[in-house]
Design goal:
Helices cover 32% and strands 38% of the residues. It has 2 helices and 4 strands. The chain has a 4-stranded mixed β-sheet with strand order 1-2-4-3, covered by helices on one side. Helix 1 packs parallel to helix 2 (40-51). It is globular.
Length: 73
C-alpha cells in the first residue's frame, strides 16, 4: 500500500521531519510517495531517507519544479 505526502509548501528542515514522521507511522514494506520541490528538499530528503535506512525506489520530475520521490520503509 502507498501513502502520498505533499511537502511542496514546506521548507528545510521540516521537509525531512514530515517524511520521517510519515514513515514512522507506516508498516515495513509500505511505500511513501512524496511530492517535493527543487532545491534543498530535492537535495536533502532522498539522501536523508537513505541515511536513515529507507530505500529510495524512484525519483522523477513531475513539472513546474515539483518532483516525486518514492520511498519504501
Amino acid at each position: 500500500m502507498s501513502k502520498i505526502l505533499d511537502i511542496t509548501k514546506e521548507t528545510c528542515p521540516m521537509t525531512f521531519v514530515k517524511v520521517k514522521l510519515a514513515l514512522s507511522r507506516m508498516a515495513t514494506g509500505e511505500q511513501l510517495v512524496v511530492h517535493l520541490k527543487e532545491g534543498e528538499p530535492l537535495n536533502n530528503v532522498p539522501a536523508s531517507c537513505e541515511e536513515q535506512g529507507y530505500h529510495v525506489e524512484a525519483l522523477r520530475a513531475l513539472g513546474d519544479g515539483v518532483h516525486e520521490l518514492i520511498v519504501r520503509k
